[in-house]
Amino acid sequence: MNVAHLIRAFNGIVGREMLRFLQQRERFFAAMVRPLIWLIVFAAGFRAALGVNIQPPYETYITYQVYITPGLLAMIQLFNGMQSSLSMVYDREMGSMRVLLTTPLPRSYLLFCRLFGSVLVSLVQVYAFLLVAYLFGIDLPSTAVQFSEQGDVYMLPSLTALISVLPALVLTGMMFGAMGMLISSTIKQLENFAGVMNFVIFPMFFASSALYPLWKMREGSVVLYYVCLWNPFTYAVELIRFAFYEQVNWEALAVVGGCTIVFLGLSAWAYDPSRGIQQRKVGAAA
């Protein structure tokens, strides 16, 4: 085993994930519909009643649509992480996952390649959603561009904002993908995954700062406020929110990075047939 083998495995696994995504066009449109409904329908209805006052990283009053956009980006990545874990359950039932994990390459490296492929898919979905949000006139970071001295001025997406948010999106995508990978190791049958998926996604999304600031949560319920504080999704949202305005939320970065390491480590252990959850399943089946 050498570097060439590692690169070949990386290209094969990541390429397979991208090819699967391109062949499943309905998966892309489904990922876009959910956040767009929140952004266009619900946020438009709440816009007058739920304007957000000045708070970091914002330097002025913002509309509700602007506030929930980072949470919707995180929701796209969360759904993609669950979809990726669903495909892992399917591959395990079909036997392709077993073949992959029996290769002489380190199991943790193989899982990381699978995870990185999932992150690339989520990035395509996130940036496509941002483009649609700009087209609908959402007041996100933008740059004034004039193509001629007497021409009209156009507001285009800020390139620096799109670049500065990329590392945050990669890290949050890895956290959600690793979490989905860990969950997939506990699912015995594909039919059971839908219920588990809803049980994970909706509590994480609603009990976070994606829809409302934490100080509003505290005014309504102190218990719910502390639930949001213990929710990793909250810190993923805040990491994306600050990065979008070229700032770093160090607390969110530490929590998301720590959760990513923990989830990925547990996934590697769970998929180890000699020690983890998969070994116990094989023993129980025998």
TrEMBL record:
GO terms for molecular function: ABC-type transporter activity. PROSITE patterns: ABC_TM2. Keywords: Cell membrane, Membrane, Transmembrane, Transmembrane helix, Transport. One of its GO terms (cellular component) is ATP-binding cassette (ABC) transporter complex. Residues 26-274 form the ABC transmembrane type-2 domain. It is a multi-pass membrane protein. InterPro entries: ABC2_TM (IPR013525), ABC2_TM_bact-type (IPR047817), ABC_2_transport (IPR000412), Alc_ABC_transptr_permease (IPR022403), T7SS_ABC-Transporter (IPR051328). It is found in: Cell inner membrane; Membrane. Its main location: membrane. The chain crosses the membrane at residues 28-46, 66-90, 111-136, 156-183, 195-215, 252-271. Belongs to the ABC-2 integral membrane protein family. This is Transport permease protein.
